[in-house]
Amino acid sequence: MENPLLLFPQLNISASKDKPYYKVMKSAIKEEPHKASKPGAKQKRNRLSLLLQKPEFHEGDHLGKPGNLTKAASVSPEEAVKWGESFDKLLSEKAGLDAFTKFLKTEFSEENIEFWIACEDYKKSKSTHELLPKAKTIFETFIQRDAPKEVNLDFHTKEVTSQSIGQPLPTTFDAAQSTVYRLMEQDSYPRFLRSAPYLNLVKGRNPARPTLRRRSRSFTVNDFQGVRPDFTVW
Questions:
Q1: Of 61, 86, 104, 121, whose CB count within 10 A is highest?
Q2: From CA 218, how far away is CA 212, in angstroms rounded?
Q3: The domain over range 77-203 is classified in CATH as 1.10.167.10
Q4: Is 18 helix (H, G, I), strand (E, B) or coil?
Q5: pLDDT (tens digit, 9 = 90+) per residue, 48-59?
Q6: Dihedral (CA of 97, 98, 100, 105) sign
Q7: Which InterPro entries match (predicted)?
């Protein structure tokens, strides 16, 4: 009997090709998911990175959580009401200062209060040797061009301040501090007094448990269970 492969040579050709083809396909199957997973994971990381950079992503971290603004247990409504008497009264109390600082963080303008606090600490320096390093740090952090926490100062105030950094005095930052103080008093302070967390403190409510609005009545799938549709044609 003759060899079937001689009678049907195409079988021999097919058999010789099937093995390498299978190996190629097998390796391709292994490689394809691996290749596809890399861009997918990278895209997910990129989307997450962009999301974290968006201000609205942090809206949930604002003043509605425990520890934000201040704890209702540590601030009485009477004390909170006093914060509304004047901006100076608010900053003179530690709890008020902490609450206002956290409020400014929600507006991404905490550099103003941080600069004001740094100036207050600077003026408490007991020797001229302490003034120079502190003055340099404050200037590089808050005042010089492209400073990491640059505050909004007019050209004249910034120029006068920068000229005295070489030989700083206790009054070196007075003009700049007064400018930032007025900015916060006239702009941020009124918004703080109108904010929901502050009003909750005045009313004796816990900011960690904001008042929830009841959702309006809406139909659900359960409302239609057991109801047979009417297909009557009129």
A1: 104
A2: 17
A3: yes
A4: helix
A5: 444 444 443 343
A6: positive
A7: RGS (IPR016137), RGS_sf (IPR036305), RGS_subdom1/3 (IPR024066), RGS_subdomain_2 (IPR044926)
Q: Say how many residues make up the chain.
A: 234
Tokens 């009003």: give the residue: 199
pLDDT, average across residues 64-80? 64
> Would you say the pTM of this structure is higher than 0.70?
no
Instruction: Report d(CA 123, CA 206) in Å as an integer.
Output: 37
* Residue 212 one-letter amino acid: L
DSSP 8-state symbol, 212: P
Instruction: Specify whether the CB–CB gap between 95 and 70 falls below 8 A.
Output: yes
Judged by phi (left if over 0) then psi (alpha if -120 to 50, else beta), residue 226 lies in left
Q: Which residue has the tokens 């808050």?
A: 142
Q: Residue 38: what residue type? A: K
Per residue in 156-178, pLDDT (tens digit) is 999 999 999 999 999 999 999 99
- Give CA 181 to chain center in angstroms: 24
Helix (H) or strand (E) holding 33, with range, is helix 9-53
State pLDDT tens for residues 195-220.
998 999 999 875 454 444 444 344 44
